Automatic annotation (TrEMBL):
Protein name in UniProt: Tg protein
Coiled-coil region(s): none
Keyword Transmembrane: yes
Keywords: Membrane, Transmembrane, Transmembrane helix
InterPro entries listed in its UniProt record: Toll_tir_struct_dom_sf, Tyr-kin_ephrin_A/B_rcpt-like
Membrane-crossing segments per the record: 134-151, 163-182, 228-249, 261-282, 311-337, 370-387, 393-412, 424-443, 449-472
Pfam families: Ephrin_rec_like (PF07699)
Lineage per the UniProt record: Eukaryota, Sar, Alveolata, Dinophyceae, Suessiales
Length: 629
């Protein structure tokens, strides 16, 4: 008999089919007992047919029940075939084994919790709490208030802070944010591998993961609601410690300004803002299960929006969001918007003391950067919740970090150069981590391929859009003469700097004509020459003794000559026309670098000589006595 058929006795004219979707391991079966379900299917009961294996289950060839795959969990349904398969946090907590099996020391739906008086380990198991296992939590509860008091005592006035201390403070805050960003990246749908997984575990303390200090050995139970409430209370309790110390100082006759305590509290929340936002958003981060339900990513044993436990977590999360990240973001936004007005009105001193954490580390003209960091961190915290497609999470996170990197490189907002360089390096390293982690994504191939294909259309199309818009703008500006400036004053600062400044002021007072003074932009000669070429109606050359020997003046005059810009020589007393021999000697006074700069901008030495001859002999000179009439 062939596969799937058997003959109960020899010499039978016809083989009998196994039926019920069963097969035989090989041909020549002689008994119905040799019929079994093939790989990928299982026999639900003696009276039913072989059924296809559910997602998250592994069905071996035979008549035995299915087993759960690593990373999935289902309740033992020995009396029926209605399997409810749930995803676990990882494959270590739910090993491939019989239905309902959890790693050692774990219990509950989806192996969500450790047993009473147990604490979780990195390998997915939970170990019994020993006599010293509560010590990390006790040390944390004692050390954190002491550290806060020391921070309050070591307060330094802004006028006493050196650049080195300012750099140290800036780099410390950058490091805290980078570590918290790693914690956010860790929450993406990425299958992290050793040894980087071990390093990422160290970020748990700064992201308020209380399992790092074995909090269950203090509480005695692994309750998700209790741990979540503790995470939400971490920063409020720290601020409460600062306020209590301020009250004690006031009672002891050594009062300090309340703004100092508020600034320290703001500094604390600013430093851990990303962790606070991540913690409050945990109940909103849900993932689908194979049984068409959804459960929390952090606690897969809690069904989303259909269980009392999740309802309690949502209530706590809403209270936490309104009282911490959203309230802090609103205060920071208001303070930043009002900053120019309050400083300009003379009420800025108290504002600076209270909100120094928001402005002090940045350049005065970049005072908005602190608020930008808060909004960026808010988006980073929202990403795991708002984007649930693994294939899109990494590109979106990379886009956020790249935008932040571009803005930081463009503005250099930190007050010290070293702090700016460190910020660039840390953001670049975070992007490298994302690039390296991309192949480790947990992908649902059908959904992720379609979503990623659609998402990648955006940057591909934007390449063309950005390039075409830039080309269109350049072409339009080329043919549209704006002429922003009526007069361009070309002068030598040492010979006529004060005179030209006075001329600019007088012209502005008595005429609507805008005046451009070249000495205001000497660091960018290319920009100067383009102003002469495209945005100036007339160039006034203030002729003094040393003007023609200055390379930038030579470039301006030559550019005006080559582009037929109206040029008016204004001859000051003391200036003498140069003969041909003197003109030829002028380039010899320029350095090779100055000659190279002029050549790069299309100003040839031969053109300079021709422009000087044109300026001296072809144009009518106006006399300007600098010592009065």
């Amino acid at each position: 008999c062939g596969i799937g058929w058997y003959s109960a006795s020899s010499g039978q004219a016809r083989c009998s089919p196994c039926g019920r979707g069963q097969i035989t391991r090989e041909s020549g079966a002689v008994n119905e007992s040799e019929c079994l379900c093939g790989s990928g299917s299982f026999m639900c009961g003696e009276t039913t047919s072989c059924e296809s294996c559910f997602e998250g289950l592994f069905c071996q060839e035979g008549l035995g029940p299915p087993v759960q795959l690593a990373g999935f969990w289902t309740k033992d349904a020995s009396t029926g075939c209605d399997f409810s398969v749930l995803r676990c946090r990882n494959a270590r907590e739910c090993p491939q084994a019989a239905l309902g099996t959890c790693a050692d020391g774990r219990e509950g739906i989806a192996c969500n919790n450790c047993k009473a008086r147990h604490y979780p380990r990195e390998n997915g198991t939970c170990l019994p709490c020993g006599e010293t296992d509560a010590l990390p939590g006790v040390i944390a509860f004692v050390a954190i208030p002491i550290a806060l008091l020391l921070l309050k005592m070591l307060r330094v006035e802004p006028s006493q802070v050196s650049f080195n201390l300012l750099t140290a403070a800036a780099v410390s805050s950058q490091l805290l944010v980078a570590i918290q960003t790693l914690g956010s990246i860790q929450q993406l749908s990425i299958e992290w591998q050793q040894p980087v997984l071990q390093l990422l575990e160290l970020t748990k303390l700064l992201t308020f993961d209380l399992d790092f200090i074995r909090i269950t050995c203090i509480y005695g139970t692994d309750s998700p609601v209790l741990k979540f409430a503790s995470r939400l209370l971490a920063c409020p309790l720290a601020c409460a410690c600062l306020l209590v110390s301020w009250c004690l100082s006031k009672m002891l006759g050594r009062p300090k300004p309340l703004d100092t305590v508020l600034n320290l509290c703001g500094l604390l929340i600013f430093a851990f803002y990303l962790s606070i936002a991540l913690a409050t958003l945990v109940p909103f981060q849900c993932a689908p299960n194979p049984d068409q339900t959804a459960s929390m990513v952090s606690d897969p044993g809690i069904a989303c929006y259909s269980s009392d436990e999740h309802a309690a977590l949502l209530a706590l999360a809403v209270c936490g969001l309104l009282s911490q990240p959203l309230a802090f973001l609103a205060v920071a936004t208001y303070a930043t918007i009002m900053y120019p007005w309050r400083v300009g009105s003379g009420r800025g001193l108290r504002l600076m003391n209270r909100y120094r954490f928001l402005f002090h580390r940045f350049k005065p003209e970049r005072y908005k950067h602190g608020l930008f960091l808060l909004y960026r961190n808010s988006i980073v915290a929202l990403l795991p919740v708002a984007v649930d497609v693994p294939g899109i999470q990494v590109p979106v996170m990379g886009t956020i970090l790249l935008a932040s990197l571009a803005l930081q490189a463009r503005t250099f907002p930190w007050r010290t150069e070293q702090a700016n360089h460190v910020d660039l390096a840390l953001t670049g390293l975070l992007i490298i981590v994302l690039l390296g982690a991309a192949p480790l994504l947990k992908l649902d191939e059908t959904e992720s391929v379609l979503s990623l294909g659609m998402f990648l259309c955006i940057p591909v199309v934007m390449i063309l859009v950005v390039a075409l818009l830039a080309l269109l703008r350049a072409i339009v500006n080329h043919f549209r003469k704006r002429c922003q400036y009526g007069i361009f004053l070309c002068h030598h600062k040492g010979g006529a700097g004060s005179l030209c400044r006075l001329m600019k002021l007088l012209i502005a007072r008595h005429s609507p004509i805008r005046v451009f003074l070249d000495c205001d932009q000497l660091e960018n000669l290319d920009y100067l020459f383009d102003i002469v070429r495209t945005e100036t109606k007339s160039v006034v050359v203030v002729l003094t003794t040393n003007l023609l020997s200055r390379s930038w003046c030579a470039g301006e005059i030559t550019t005006a000559w080559k582009n037929n810009i109206t040029t008016v020589p204004l001859q000051c007393d003391g200036f003498k026309l140069l003969d041909d021999e003197a003109l030829k000697l002028i380039p010899t006074t320029w350095t090779p670098q100055q000659k190279q700069v002029l050549a790069n901008y299309g100003v040839a030495l031969g053109d300079v000589m021709s422009a000087y001859v044109w300026l001296q002999h072809n144009l009518a000179h106006l006399q300007m006595p600098r010592s009065g009439p």
